From TrEMBL:
Gene3D superfamilies: Jelly Rolls. InterPro entries: cNMP-bd_dom, cNMP-bd_dom_sf, RmlC-like_jellyroll. It comes from the Bacteria. It holds the Pfam family cNMP_binding. This is Cyclic nucleotide-binding protein. The lineage of its organism: Bacteria, Pseudomonadati, Bacteroidota, Cytophagia, Cytophagales. Residues 34-116 form the Cyclic nucleotide-binding domain.
């Protein structure tokens, strides 16, 4: 399936657009290819774009003062990624986004996104819907960290995103769960 069709199917799950509206929206995107390990956003960058994943996997993360990585998000196909705080507050990036695997993305500038939201009501509705779902998912993850033990968080992640375990190495899943790689290996072998 080509990039245009992937984006169109993604949008039409929640909104209806005329062909002309979709064509205008699609024209705002830039198709980009990145290699495994390549960085899209570095800490301290000015952030002007967000990324819609067509194939591959991205990760959004930060490094603490001891250079320990904490992963905030994985972005698999049809997911979006950026440093949203930097994108919308016009401040420097606090997190980084890079490629877990080779990736194909469509990127759109914040200016084009906002313009299209104002011009086409359905696009504004789509982005509100997506933002609300993202907020709900983040709230669920935070509650899980506060109330569930490591085993339950691992099992929930495996049940919700089984494909993630084929795309992402165990040490990155460990970083996402806030545990050691050895703990993830033990949980992986115990679930077999």
């Amino acid at each position: 399936m080509d990039a245009r069709q992937i984006l169109k199917e993604h949008l039409t799950k929640s909104v209806e657009l005329t062909d002309a509206q979709f064509d205008g929206f699609y024209a705002c995107f830039k198709h980009e290819s990145f290699r495994k390990g390549q960085t899209l956003i570095r800490e301290g960058d000015a952030v002007t774009r967000e990324y819609f994943v067509l194939s591959g996997c991205l990760k959004t993360y930060f490094l603490n003062d001891e250079l320990k990585m904490t992963i905030l998000q994985f972005a698999m196909p049809t997911w979006w990624a950026s440093d949203y705080m930097a994108l919308y507050n016009h401040c420097k990036a606090a997190v980084m986004v890079d490629c877990v695997s080779n990736a194909e993305v469509l990127s759109i500038s914040a200016d084009d996104r906002e313009r299209m939201c104002h011009e086409v009501e359905a696009i504004g509705h789509f982005f509100r819907w997506r933002t609300n779902r993202g907020f709900a998912a983040l709230q669920k993850r935070l509650l899980s960290f506060m109330t569930n033990d490591t085993k339950q968080r691992y099992e929930d992640l495996l049940a919700q995103y089984p494909m993630l375990f084929q795309l992402v190495p165990k040490h990155l899943i460990a970083s996402y769960l806030g545990v050691s790689r050895e703990t993830v290996s033990r949980l992986y072998h115990a679930s077999r």
